[in-house]
C-alpha cells in the first residue's frame, strides 16, 4: 500500500516575477530622474515654505564669492544684462529663477531683480523648502 501524500510542497522559490518588478521600478526611476533638473552649483538657499510656480526659462545663480552664472555659464557683472536679454529673446514667456546663496548681500539680488523689472521679465527667488 502506498501511503505517500500526493501534495508535495516545492521548496524552490520562483524569482521571475520579482525580477520583473525590479526592472519596472528601475525603468520608472530612470525616467523620472531625467525630468529633474537640479541646480549644479552648490548654493545655500534661504528657507521658505512657498513653492516655485513659474516655469523656468532661465536660471541665474549668485554664489558666495559674488560670481554670476546664467544657466551654469559664468558671466561677468558688466555683461549680465546683455546676456539675459540675448537668451530671453528666444522665449515667449520670459521668466527668471534666481538662485542666490544666503550669504550674498541683498544689493546683488536687487541688481538682478532690477534687470528683470526694466525688461518686464517675471522673476522668482529660489528657496530651500
Biggest β-sheet, characterized?
5 strands, mixed
Q: Look up the CATH topology of the domain at 58-125.
A: Nucleotidyltransferase, domain 5
Report the portion of residues in β strands: 15-25%
Amino-to-carboxy terminus distance: 75 Å
The shape is elongated
Structural class: alpha/beta
Query: How many strands?
Result: 5
Q: Which CATH class of the domain at 58-125 applies here?
A: Alpha Beta
State Rg.
26 Å
Going by CATH, the architecture of the domain at 58-125 would be 2-Layer Sandwich
Secondary-structure element order, N to C? HEEEHEHE
Helix content: 25-40%
Overall mean confidence score, pLDDT: 79
Would you identify the regions where 5 or more consecutive residues have pLDDT less than 50?
Answer: none
**Tally of separate helices:** 3
Q: Can you list the strand order of the major beta sheet?
A: 3-2-1-4-5
Question: How would you briefly describe this protein structure?
Answer:
With 129 residues, the protein is α/β, with parallel strands linked by helices.
Architecture overview:
The protein is of the alpha/beta class. It has a domain of 68 residues: Nucleotidyltransferase, domain 5. Helices cover 33% and strands 16% of the residues. The protein contains three helices and five strands. The protein has a five-stranded mixed sheet, covered by helices on one side. Strand 1 and strand 2 form a beta hairpin. The longest helix is centred in the first third of the chain and has 20 residues. The radius of gyration is 26 Å and the shape is elongated. The termini are far apart. The mean pLDDT is 79.
Amino acid at each position: 500500500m502506498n501511503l505517500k501524500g500526493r501534495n508535495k510542497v516545492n521548496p524552490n522559490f520562483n524569482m521571475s516575477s520579482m525580477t520583473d518588478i525590479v526592472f519596472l521600478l528601475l525603468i520608472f526611476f530612470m525616467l523620472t530622474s531625467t525630468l529633474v533638473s537640479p541646480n549644479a552649483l552648490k548654493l545655500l538657499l534661504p528657507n521658505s515654505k512657498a513653492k516655485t510656480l513659474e516655469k523656468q526659462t532661465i536660471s541665474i545663480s549668485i554664489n558666495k564669492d559674488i560670481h554670476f552664472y546664467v544657466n551654469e555659464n559664468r558671466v561677468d557683472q558688466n555683461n549680465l544684462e546683455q546676456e539675459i536679454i540675448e537668451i530671453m529673446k528666444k522665449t515667449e514667456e520670459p521668466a527668471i529663477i534666481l538662485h542666490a546663496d544666503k550669504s550674498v548681500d541683498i544689493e546683488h539680488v536687487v541688481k538682478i531683480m532690477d534687470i528683470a523689472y526694466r525688461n518686464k521679465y517675471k522673476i522668482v527667488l529660489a528657496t530651500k523648502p
